[in-house]
Input
Amino acid sequence: KQEVTQIPAALSVPEGENLVLNCSFTDSAIYNLQWFRQDPGKGLTSLLLIQSSQREQTSGRLNASLDKSSGRSTLYIAASQPGDSATYLCAVFKAAGNKLTFGGGTRVLVKP
Amino acid sequence: GAGVSQSPSNKVTEKGKDVELRCDPISGHTALYWYRQRLGQGLEFLIYFQGNSAPDKSGLPSDRFSAERTGESVSTLTIQRTQQEDSAVYLCASLKARGAASVETQYFGPGTRLLVL
Output
């Protein structure tokens, strides 16, 4: 059974610092890994999707890496801003079943 | 509409009552998912619809939970005889999936917050 773990569960940084969020998964038989952002009272917004054959994806200040063999992904957010405050969820799309398995999320607070 | 919509946005009910939650996916999206998110936790998969195929119900926690979808349109999630542990946010997502589902992202609705007293 696929398990996805995110560490830390919560993170508080001053504005301008870089954020590093970690995600690990137990079963390397994945098609892709996705990072989502969740704001209070709202649904999830997809940030980055990394195919299993890729090592990283970048979008603006966001960069996500994937090491499938070790079951790890890291989301980097450069030069954090208060607007980056949210919960960040990683999820893996399993090789069978057409479904996403989510981690518990990391709650991020960027202080002005 | 531009995105996935869900109704109601909030629902308070008494233990033992039935509730029905609705999801309107993005037009043209063949796949639809229901997830549950308990307070402070990640999302749990509940059920998956893909076109006219039999749904994947492997995530439904008990026989009190059921869901329907007609074709590629609206879906309803029904919880019978609600219990306090059913309190959670119920999220719906849709996916185009015309090609390989693995290269596409799911689009999520805002969720329905269910509180069972």
